Amino acid sequence: MNPLEDSRGGQRKPPGCDKLDLQVKMLGGIEAGGTKFVCGFGTGPDDLTFARFPTTSPDETLAGVVSFLKEANLEAVGIGSFGPVDLHPDSPTFGYITSTPKDGWTNCDLAGRVRASLGVPVGFETDVNAAALGEARWGAGVGLSNLLYLTVGTGIGGGALVDGRVVHGLVHPEMGHIRVPHELARDPFPGACPFHGDCLEGLASGPAMMRRWGKPPERLPRDHPAWPLEAHYLALAVVNLALTLSPQRIVLGGGVMRQTQMFPMIRVEFTRLLHGYVRHPAVEERIGEYIVGPKLGDRSGILGALALAEQAAG
Amino acid sequence: MNPLEDSRGGQRKPPGCDKLDLQVKMLGGIEAGGTKFVCGFGTGPDDLTFARFPTTSPDETLAGVVSFLKEANLEAVGIGSFGPVDLHPDSPTFGYITSTPKDGWTNCDLAGRVRASLGVPVGFETDVNAAALGEARWGAGVGLSNLLYLTVGTGIGGGALVDGRVVHGLVHPEMGHIRVPHELARDPFPGACPFHGDCLEGLASGPAMMRRWGKPPERLPRDHPAWPLEAHYLALAVVNLALTLSPQRIVLGGGVMRQTQMFPMIRVEFTRLLHGYVRHPAVEERIGEYIVGPKLGDRSGILGALALAEQAAG
After folding, report:
1. Separation of alpha carbons A157 and A172, rounded Å
2. Which of A14, A306, B211, B217 gives the lowest tally of CB atoms within 10 Å of its CB?
3. Residue A49, beta-bridge partner list
4. Secondary structure of chain B in the HEC alphabet?
């Protein structure tokens, strides 16, 4: 299978140049999503070569991914995957996509199959943890040890770095499902989460906006009342996460955050809700650098997978 | 100044035995509170000798503390302090109590003064972080690397261990001030937090209960409707913190949690609110061991200070 397309920001080398790559050890990355797998190789953002493959069956999708990554002389591969996944190194199903309803992918040994096919060490993470790691390594979190990355799109998910390491714990965080106060007076929409109704994801994901307003968020005008409400819910979430993790910076990514008019609204609302409670110049004087968009744009995930490869290579 | 009293669980050695201590290196701990300083020495829970001094002026209180701790042959001292404190090792005011309104204690170099008086390494933390560390070292979190300790009393505060280390970040967490949904229909009380009104602390601290119900929580009957409401707010908080930090166990301490009838209520409500979202036997099968009280009782803080001393001693 051939790559569907070459992505902006990436460069495909002409076939004759591949031999050059054999001289240099490269890192491979796989951003495994429910609709597409983005994969790439290189040593960082400046020389990333990447391609996309649709998520069909594991056999078909992985055949394309592996054949593409074999073009490079890989030292290691990192995978940031859709979930749920098993991240426990001691577990017999470590590196698996576990109980996904997605056809054919339930209990898929993603990391094991990639390792077996490519014969190199494999790093494995959730997609959002990988994106957090990508921003920490090459994006908005460079030089910081404590970073929070929140993605707001089809779902809401968060990845946190504490002391430079991704937070796991018992399983892994599911920050998208925290409860925040529901503004029932101005927002009677009951929430869209099948598990929790009006949890954060139920109130503020892309599908929640779609159901509340009857059209997809990208088709709502920039001055629509949807945006201050959305900014309010996201600010509540950011307040809770900031008070729990005390990150040095908060990166908000994902499709809904392409509506960049929300950043100033979220910063104002965050400051109002926090009410002077975090006394630090990063919050009190430089809020514009405290709550930011991803510096790597759409590439946080795939570059995070590369950063995972770097760690796996040791 | 003499110790006010010897505490239950602690042992004072008769003066003649003090010479024995000179043979053994001991750890010292200070739990610095706004009304009293608890201090102790020993090597752990089994041989802890401790005493309490009222929090008057820094000169007077520290004179008592230092004179008591000098009885032992200390290797290092740990301090868990009321705040706000400066925990940044690189800061010129590291180890200070900073902007407290408490008379005489503003910008008090607590760690520096203790270090100068006792001439040993000093570890320094917030009071709740120290308590989390105490439970991790000798209490409900032994053997776990990811632990959450939440204290519910005059205020609400949380301390988290991730990969065995206390989470700091930009400043330090202030989990007591997260926002949770306010049950306005059954609870019109506006909240008691001077900063945020109906944040968690504003809804669920001891003083919030006092103001809502007109009497201190310890005087409310065990079947009073105050308790299911309190358990509901605490369960919301525990859900949010669990989804953000993914701890392996959650310890709920502090004065309000002496109402142990709340533990089963919180567990049931936590499970209902989580709605199957954390798929792990620790939550799904052993909730009674997942949300627990402090195993060290009232001694989490002072033993956490001892654990800090152990770390400072290297």
Report:
1. 11
2. A14
3. A41
4. CCCCCECCCCCCCCHHHHHHHCCCCEEEEEEECCCEEEEEEECCHHHCEEEEEECCCHHHHHHHHHHHHCCCCEEEEEEEECCCECCCCCCCCCCCECCCCCCCCCCECHHHHHHHHHCCCEEEEEHHHHHHHHHHHHCCCCCCCCEEEEEECCCEEEEEEECCEECCCCCCCCHHHCCCCCCCCCCCCCCCECCCECCHHHHHCHHHHHHHHCCCHHHCCCCCCHHHHHHHHHHHHHHHHHHHHCCCEEEEECHHHHCCCHHHHHHHHHHHHHCCCCCCHHHHCCHHHHEECCCCHHHHHHHHHHHHHHHHHC
Which pLDDT score, from 0 to 100, does residue A3 have? Answer: 45
Q: How confident is the model at residue A24 (pLDDT cuts 50, 70, 90)?
A: confident
Q: What is the mean pLDDT of chain A?
A: 92
What are B50-56's contacts with CB under 8 Å, separation 24+? Answer: B50/B6, B50/B7, B50/B10, B50/B302, B51/B3, B51/B4, B51/B5, B51/B6, B51/B7, B51/B10, B51/B12, B52/B3, B52/B4, B52/B5, B52/B7, B53/B1, B53/B3, B53/B4, B54/B4, B55/B102, B55/B105
Q: How many Cβ pairs closer than 8 A exist between chain A and B?
A: 135
Which positions ≥6 away from A282 have C-beta within 8 Å?
A: A248, A249, A289, A290, B170
Residue in B161, B198, B245 to test binding to A, most A beta-carbons within 10 Å? B245
Which residue in chain B is spatially nearest to A146 when comparing CA positions? B169
- Rounded to the nearest angstrom, the gap between the alpha carbon of residue A277 and the centroid of all alpha carbons in its chain is 29
Q: Global pTM?
A: 0.92
Average pLDDT of the residues of chain B: 92
Are residues A267 and A261 in contact, defined by beta-carbon separation less than 8 angstroms?
A: no
Question: Per-residue pLDDT tens for B57-88?
Answer: 999 999 999 999 999 999 999 999 998 899 98
Would an 8 Å CB–CB cutoff place A156 in contact with chain B? no
Token pair 């979220």 is at which residue? A266
Q: Measured between alpha carbons, how far is residue B193 from residues A303, B178, B184 in Å?
A: 43, 11, 16
The answer to whether residue A204 neighbours chain B at the CB level (below 8 Å) is no
Q: Render pLDDT for A33-57 as a digit per residue (tens, 0 to 9).
A: 999 999 999 999 999 999 999 999 9
Identify which of B141, B206, B150 has the alpha carbon closest to the alpha carbon of residue B176: B150
Please choose, from the candidates B178, B192, B194, B187, the residue with its C-alpha nearest in 3D space to the C-alpha of residue B240. Answer: B178
Q: Say if residues A45 and A299 touch (Cβ distance below 8 Å).
A: yes
What is A214-237 written as a DSSP string?
SS-GGGS-TTSTHHHHHHHHHHHH
Give the pLDDT band of residue B7 (cuts 50, 70, 90).
very low
3-state secondary structure of A178: coil
Q: Which residues in chain B touch residue A283, judged by CB atoms under 8 angstroms apart?
A: 170
Phi first, then psi, for residue A21 (nearest 5°) are -60, -30
Task: Average the pLDDT over A135-156 and give the result.
Answer: 97
Taking a C-beta distance cutoff of 8 angstroms, is the pair A9, A48 a contact?
A: yes
Q: Where are the beta strands (DSSP E) in chain A?
A: 26-32, 36-42, 49-54, 74-81, 122-126, 147-152, 156-162, 165-166, 249-253, 291-292
Distance (Å) of CA B3 to CA A31, B39, B145? 61, 10, 36
Q: What percent of chain B has pLDDT over 90?
A: 87
Question: Residue A256 carries which DSSP code?
Answer: G
